[in-house]
Amino acid sequence: MKIKQLIKTLILPVLLVSTAVTHANEVEIVDVKVHQAANKTWTFAVTLKHEDAGWDHYANEWQVIAPDDKILATRTLYHPHVNEQPFTRNTSGVEIPADITTVRIIARDTVHGHSKTAMQVNLKTKEVKPVMLALKKTKKKS
Predict the structure, then answer these.
(1) pTM here?
(2) So what's the pLDDT on residue 115?
(3) So where are the chain's domains?
(4) Would you put residue 69 in left (φ > 0), alpha (ψ -120 to 50) or beta?
(5) How many Å apart are CA 60 and CA 53, to the nearest integer?
(6) Model confidence over 70-96: pLDDT tens digits?
(7) Cα(34)–Cα(103) distance, rounded to whole angstroms?
(8) At a CB cut-off of 8 Å and minimum separation 6, what does 44 contact?
(9) In angstroms, rounded to a whole number, what is the distance separating the alpha carbons of residues 44 and 135?
(10) Residue 140: which of 40, 79, 49, 73 has the closest Cα?
(11) Element (H, E) at 6
């Protein structure tokens, strides 16, 4: 009788939590909206979808990446969004050189790292399309 009670009160909850953590998928970029301000800086509104499972597994970042793989902006997500899916977060004041016409948005979660699909954004037409990543090391923002 004590063993069954021990299983119900201690072991079963641990198994359920660990199962939920291992079944969460990679983060998905659902949408990207861009706007250029009068001062020529850019605002990005990125919508992510992820089966956040709490502090051990959640979408924790998205970045704006130049064609030469330089990181132009990073939006850190400091907490899980378990009950808010999908969710949109903005970053503004992003400086992009005038000769750059496309950027990629990449996202990551705390377990899988960067997702294998990014969104390519044409800054002139605002067209957004998914692209598969051949991930290489990104250059630090200078």
Answers:
(1) 0.74
(2) 84
(3) 26-132
(4) left
(5) 12
(6) 999 999 887 776 677 788 889 999 999
(7) 11
(8) 32, 33, 34, 64, 73, 75, 90, 91, 92, 94, 105, 121
(9) 22
(10) 73
(11) helix 2-6
DSSP for 68-134 reads TSBEEEEEE--S--TTS-SEEEEEEEE---TT--EEEEEEEETTTEE-SEEEEEETTT--EEEEE--
How far apart CA 8 and CA 23 sit, in angstroms, is 22
CATH for 26-132 is 2.60.40.730
Residue 11 in tokens: 């072991």
Q: Which helix (H) or strand (E) holds 48?
A: strand 42-49
pLDDT greater than 90 at residue 68: yes
Tokens of 19: 């199962």
> Encoding tokens for residue 76?
């850190």
